[in-house]
Amino acid sequence: MTIYLDIVIIENLIMNYIILYATSIIAKKKVRHIRIFISSIIGTIYVIVLYVTKLPIYSNIISKLLLSLIMVYIMFKPENIKTLINNILLFYLTSFVFGGASTALIYLIKPEQILTKNGIFLGTYTLKIVFLGGIVGLFLIIVTINIIRSKFSKKDMFYNIEIQIEEKTIETKAMIDTGNLLKEPITNIPVIIVEHTLLYDTVEKEILNNLEEMLSGNFEKIPDEIKNKYLSKLKVIPFKSLGKENGMLLGIKVDKVKIENEENRKVIDKAIIGIYNKSLTRRGEYRALLGIDMI
Length: 295
Description:
The chain has helices spanning 5-26, 33-52, 61-76, 81-109, 127-150, 154-157, 205-208, 211-215, 224-230; strands at 114-117, 120-123, 158-165, 168-177, 191-195, 234-241, 244-254, 256-260, 265-268, 271-276, 288-291. The longest helix has 29 residues, at 81-109. The chain folds into two domains: 5-150; 154-294, Cathepsin D, subunit A, domain 1. It has nine helices and eleven strands. It has a nine-stranded mixed sheet. A two-stranded antiparallel ribbon has the order 1-2.
């Protein structure tokens, strides 16, 4: 069997890119294409080195884990170790699905044209199979995610919450948002996103009406007595979303949060509410967002 190095490079570069791009979709993170491309090149270089050499150092599990860590770090540039580990696990999940789909297609179509060298599958199969494997893998992931989401009934997605700030209590309906993994970066306390209009009877209007100014460090419109009262409770919460790469929310540390629905009830002694200065939904079905780890 004749193996052409340029074909091996193109195949691995394409498959690496598809897998990394699919991983970014599953992680709900907007990643620049140049980062995905650089990470794909690194993975391809490793495969070529592994193919043309017989050094054990390149084929052991430590080097493969190190490669995964480097590729994921270059693409996502995670803020902390926990996020890095989560991204690596998603990367492996996506890789296993794509790899399994591609290998199955290859063996079904032309199994006689497959060989293994240094732990790498090679063959004379066409790039069409590589593309088809990527499409099948992405389809399987999307179907699986939709099945998992369908298991959550509407009652499982909504909770009644009570937020206690000093002697005052706020009651509202909150929706579970699997993409809400916000935590205060210093204390690692989970953050509940709350509409600012919900807080008008509890938090001073001078705070709620000047959120942007306070985030930029301007406290001129805040009276000294209010500033002194909230200074130790105010937190700045960084966040990322598809529409905003480097967003900031003003947060307030609250005394207690009660979360309950028909089947579950939980009390959180330490929590922070992130004040959102718009409406979360047009129909007002809910006015707060909970992270999945809070339940």
